[in-house]
Amino acid sequence: MSFRRNPIIAVILVAFALGFTVSGADQRGGFVDLCAFTGANLTDHFLGLYCLNDATEVFSYNYTWINLDYCVGNNAGTLVSYENGAYSGTCTNCTIAHDATLELTCSCWDMDNHHVTSTLDLNGTIYDADGSAACYAHKGNKTWEP
């Protein structure tokens, strides 16, 4: 089969060569450069942190919080980036840890009805949308103070 005869295959190969991916996760990610995640906190399934707004005349951080159920799911005991994943219904004892990135760790039910520990790097899931933490099409709330 020739690529000239099947242009769709040629386009797919070019897309992969350029680094495009096909996945359910939001590919924007990268919030660690624009959010002060070292002050992040997790209350129930809401993540709160400071993110940089786009108003260059103000150029400051907004306190933002987002419901991680919009961003994270439980896939057979493994935390995954998944729109409207509602992980909190099957995961407990969740914590966040931050060093060079921000990680969510929970105890989640697997397919054998056991709790297993799983960790997800939120930098590939959450992004800064003008001072709001966001994932997929969901934007979190923002205020000037927590």
From TrEMBL:
Residues 1-25 form the signal peptide. Gene3D superfamilies: Cyanovirin-N. The keyword Signal applies. Coiled coil: none annotated. It holds the Pfam family CVNH. The keyword Protein transport does not apply. Residues 43-132 form the Cyanovirin-N domain. Keywords: Signal. This is Cyanovirin-N domain-containing protein. It comes from Cladorrhinum samala. The lineage of its organism: Eukaryota, Fungi, Dikarya, Ascomycota, Pezizomycotina.
